Amino acid sequence: MFRYHDGVEVPVDPALIHMDTPPWEVEEGLRMVVTATMAEAADDPGSFVWLKLANPSHREIDLVQRLFSLPKLQVEDAMNGRQRAKLEAHEDRAFVVLKELRYDDDASAVETGQVAVFLGPGYAISVRTGDAAPGSARQRLAENSHLTKSGPLSVLYAIGDVLVDGYLDIVEHLANDLEGLEDSVFSMKASDSAGMIYNLKRENLEVKRAISPLIGEARVLVRERHPEIPAPLAPYFRDVGDHLLRASDLVDSHDQLLMTMLMAATSQQDLRQNQDMRKISAWAAIIAVPTAIAGIYGMNFDNMPELHWTFGYPTVLLIMLTICFFLYRQFKKSGWL
Question: Quick one: average pLDDT of 86-99?
Answer without folding.
Answer: 90
